[in-house]
Specification:
By secondary structure, the chain is α/β, with parallel strands linked by helices. The chain has 5 domains: about 5-195, P-loop containing nucleotide triphosphate hydrolases (Rossmann fold), CATH 3.40.50; about 205-330, 3-Layer(aba) Sandwich (Rossmann fold), CATH 3.40.50; about 335-415 and about 495-525, Orthogonal Bundle (Arc Repressor Mutant, subunit A), CATH 1.10.10; about 415-490; about 570-634, Arc Repressor Mutant, subunit A (Orthogonal Bundle), CATH 1.10.10. The strands form 5 sheets. The chain has a 7-stranded parallel β-sheet with strand order 3-4-2-5-6-1-7, with helices on both faces. The radius of gyration is 27 Å and the shape is globular.
Length: about 625
């Protein structure tokens, strides 16, 4: 099949989005390829379609467990063979997955970067015979990027093992320096291809406000702009407070953060996607991998750490191409705090050593041991025990991660597993003595082939349905079988997790690359200055500020952000403003019209002037933006 035929068969689309086809053709020509596409630009299709068209397996490297799970589920729904390996899986689970990938009929294997240099993975790599390597969130490979992960640097070793396999690197936001770093660190060939879509979003109106009351401003915004909304907050506690505020004022809202159990997060996410809740109030744990095209507004209740994060999160509005809004609320204290946080994020050498030793003692890891082990961790308990505040503890652990000593996952999902411990003879005797548990044992043996000999991942809800007993009863029975020594049952869990990449260093041998850390600190300071400039700048087009930051030298004024509108307002006389306003009202008395229809009817009035007047009339509640983007009189 051609790329277009593959697109239609598996994804149901007739045409590609901008640059997708060009990127796919470069990959099919076996060129190393860098693709910088904005959030919602369809990055996954750029490697999935070439993989489906080629023989062999596509190895996908991604650091985000939530994104891996989302893409795996989407591929499974399409009937495509897909597997995944990530931190938190047991040795037996990883080995079984690699065997399936090597000898089964699978097209994709998703792997977290920490797994790439394990002995087990390298042992199976020749048998995997990948035809393509896809590196998602590729900015993580750059020390000068906003989300550097040392484990990404190991990807380059794959090129030595697989010299003829092309690599596609994908990211939504990378400056020119980071793009160069990606290509260098992945050892791209000289003939590699680069594609960068414009960072401009012509339908997205950016605004920044410094209100006396964020609560009142948020309510005003959501009451004036109809449709699905996302409100980003910095803390988990804030999400619950803001969601409650919105509900008190009759705005459908729910909260979401990584501290919720997976099932509850899924229910909240699905309710919002299906428009059962209009507004989701969340931390930045929300949104990755979610494709909801009709989001009309994204509000940042707090200032993000950098423009990279802001651009990605704001970009979740208006993916359907219709008018949408990205609003950032701030206070003077917040921009000052960003500078302070840099000092906490990049602690001094003595402070970092203290946190490292505290962590190793907390996990009870002896000096000279620990490599490859993983541990659940209660950050609040750790911080309290060693008299650290939560920011110090969290940022200190993240800094150790950037030094390549550990890998830290804020929320790790471990699937339930069962392994039989008794002999077949003992099991038969046990079933006679415990007839109530016999159906559970039989259900396990019939549902999971090989479970008597190997540890297996089990799905309690499916098993309960098969045995025809309540889920709660099944869970109690599995726990009882575990307590009686018949099985080793490990229920699923979702907790922050530490994975040790190196043995614990002896106290006197503690070493980190201070020079590299100081450079990362300098780059972080530049990113902070960039977001501060975006927030405080009232003279230049906000879309252009973002474009210039990412190296888009030919970025043009958008005409619809608050700065563009305010600058246009200064050029529009009172008489001109009233004339346009009266004409809009006169036209809307006759019929409902879209913004594009008004442009046609009011030529030669400029789009900027027209948008300025429409925004004013909506704010004054003279007109409203109704269903199907139709403007109407209130």
């Amino acid at each position: 099949m051609s790329p277009q035929e593959t697109l239609q068969k598996y994804y149901g689309y007739k045409t590609f989005r901008p640059l997708q086809e060009e990127i796919i053709n470069a990959v099919l020509a076996k060129k190393d390829t860098l693709a910088v596409l904005p959030t919602g630009g369809g990055k996954s299709i750029c490697f999935q379609i070439p993989a489906l068209m080629n023989e062999g397996l596509c190895l996908v490297i991604s650091p985000l467990i939530a994104l891996i799970k989302d893409q795996v589920e989407n591929l499974k729904k399409k009937g495509i063979g897909v597997l995944s390996i990530y931190s938190g899986m047991s040795f037996a689970e990883v080995k079984q997955t690699l065997q399936n990938a090597a000898f089964g009929n699978y097209k994709f294997l998703y792997v977290s970067p920490e797994r790439l240099e394990t002995k087990l993975f390298l042992e199976y790599l020749p048998a995997l015979k990948p035809s393509l390597i896809a590196v998602d969130e590729a900015h993580c490979i750059s020390q000068w990027g906003y989300d550097f992960r040392p484990s990404y640097l190991r990807i380059a070793n794959l090129t030595e093992e697989l010299p003829d396999v092309p690599i596609i690197a994908l990211t939504a936001s990378a400056t020119i320096n980071v793009q160069n770093d990606i290509c260098n660190n992945l050892l791209f060939s000289k003939e590699h291809s680069r594609f960068q879509q414009s960072f401009a979003r012509p339908n997205l109106s950016y605004s920044v406000f410094k209100p006396a009351s964020k609560e009142k401003k948020l309510l005003e915004i959501l009451q004036n702009v109809k449709g699905a909304a996302i409100v980003y907050c910095k803390s988990r506690k804030q999400t619950t407070v803001v969601a409650e505020l919105l509900r008190m004022h009759n705005i459908d809202a729910d909260f979401y953060h990584a501290g919720l159990l997976g099932e509850k997060r899924t229910l909240k996410q699905d309710a919002w996607i299906n428009n059962k809740n209009r507004t989701i109030v969340c931390t930045n744990a929300f949104g990755m991998g979610i494709d909801k095209p009709d989001v009309r507004i994204v509000v940042h209740y707090d200032v993000p750490d950098c423009l990279e994060n802001y651009y990605q999160e704001a970009g979740r509005a208006g993916r359907d191409g219709k008018r949408a809004y990205a609003v950032l609320l701030h206070s003077s204290k917040e921009t000052d705090d960003l500078i302070y946080k840099i000092e906490t994020k990049y602690p001094s050498l003595p402070k970092l050593k203290m946190i490292y030793l505290a962590l190793m003692n907390y996990l009870q890891v002896a000096a000279g041991t620990g490599e490859g082990l993983s541990f659940d961790i209660d950050l609040a308990s750790f911080a309290q025990y060693f008299k650290l505040n939560m920011l110090e503890a969290t940022y200190g652990i993240q800094a150790l991660g950037q030094e390549g000593l550990i890998s830290f996952s804020e929320m790790m999902f471990k699937q339930s597993t069962v392994e039989f411990k008794s002999s077949k003879t003992d099991l038969e005797e046990f079933e006679i003595l415990h007839p109530k548990l016999e159906q559970i044992i039989k259900g396990l043996l019939r549902s999971y082939e090989g479970i008597f000999d190997f540890q297996c991942v089990v799905y309690e809800k499916i098993l309960a349905g098969f045995i025809k007993i309540p889920y709660a009863e099944l869970s109690r029975s599995l726990q009882e079988l575990h307590q009686k020594g018949i099985i080793d049952y490990k229920p699923s869990s979702e907790k922050p997790q530490i994975f040790l990449l190196k043995n614990r260093m002896y106290n006197d041998d503690f070493y980190i690359d201070v020079y590299a850390m100081n450079i990362r600190k300098t780059e972080a300071t530049k990113r902070t200055k960039a977001i501060e400039n975006y927030v405080t700048n009232s003279a230049f087009c906000r879309s252009k500020i973002i474009g210039n930051y990412f190296g888009e030298s030919n970025a043009k004024d958008c005409g619809i952000c608050d700065n563009c509108i305010n600058n246009t307002e200064a050029k529009l006389s009172t008489e001109e403003f009233k004339a346009v306003s009266d004409k809009i009202i006169e036209l809307l008395k006759i019929e409902k019209l879209t913004y594009k229809q008004l442009i046609q009817k009011l030529k030669p009035v400029s789009q900027r002037s027209l948008w300025l007047v429409i925004t004013f009339l909506i704010a004054e509640e003279i007109i409203e933006n109704g269903e199907k983007e139709l403007l109407t009189l209130k």
